[in-house]
Amino acid sequence: GGGGGGGGDDSGGGASGLTYSGVTTPAQIDESNAAEITSGAFATGLIGDGMVGLSVDRQIKSYHIRNFRSVKVPIILSDSLNLVDFTSPFSGGIQAATQTESDIIEGSCGGTMSYSVSVDDERGTFSGRFTFSDYCNDGTTINGAAGFDGEMDVDSGEFIEATFSFDNLSGGELFLDGEIQIDFAATPNVVTFNAYGKDPVSGAVFWIKDYRITIDEFAGYVEIEMAGTFYHPDFGYVTLSTPEPFVLHDGDEWPESGTLIVKGANDSKAKLTAIDHLTCTVEVDRDGDGTYEWDSDIISWEDL
Questions:
Q1: Over the Cα atoms of the chain, what is R_g?
Q2: pTM for the full model?
Q3: Nearby residues of 294 by Cβ (< 8 Å), 6 or more positions away
Q4: How far, in Å, CA of 2 to CA of 52, rounded?
């Protein structure tokens, strides 16, 4: 599809020059594209192995979710902050507001992460940069660099907020160019995500716009909700919501429950429902009358 339309100037390039030049009008959802659109919107919000967990097989012209691993890129980035030794400027760590500290940390399952960070121990502000080299954390491997800045409580040393900006951050299945903001003070934590994602095989660029993801952690599982706009280069954009949060148990690759609804042109919509941690269904309401006229029957998450 061509550029222009509803995308406006916002579809311009990020730091690496990625641009979205796909369809910028609302997607007309039907049984021919519902699985592609819902899987893209779902996997984009729940970033998995290979960054967005999405790869393109042009031979069968379908998009497949790979490994669902609840919002791994934000988790890797936030966990990386916790590995940085700035506990304290206040207790023998960084001693001055403008002093910089650096180190190299090995991944839990391979690779390295190097960092440099500067902390203002009076204001509680910090900034720095991560560089990932085949850095593996909990089964997800990333490469590339991310700048970061944020604020922490000078008394407790706990993070208040952080912003990560990245250019060509790669997990092997997708390149990402954009920004993630994490509000650590909110309960549950809130992740705001804006990025372009490029599939290295097909060259297709997806647009992840104004995603708001909440991650609520419990003993043995997490609940994940999301909202935002997903632009598919072939079909256009949809807005998404999770009327029932996705529930992912420790050790599972896929959620055992939860519902995602995406809405497109003329009130058309599709609903993705987790049946259990192995299967799901996709349903379509073509005309927006509230009745789902088509469903996929039960399908494996791996086949979505």
A1: 20
A2: 0.79
A3: 30, 31, 34, 283, 284, 286
A4: 24
20 exposure class (CB count in 10 Å sphere: 0-12, 13-18, 19+): buried
Tell me how far apart the alpha carbons of residues 112 and 105 are, in angstroms, rounded to a whole number.
6
- Report how far Cα 7 is from the mean position of its chain's Cα atoms: 20
Closest CA to 49 of 147, 124, 138: 138
Query: 149: which residues sit within 8 A by CB, 6+ positions away?
Result: 125, 126, 127, 128, 162, 163
Q: What value does the mean pLDDT take over residues 63-72? A: 35
CA distance 220 to 256: 13
Q: How confident is the model at residue 303 (pLDDT cuts 50, 70, 90)?
A: confident
CA distance 224 to 182: 14
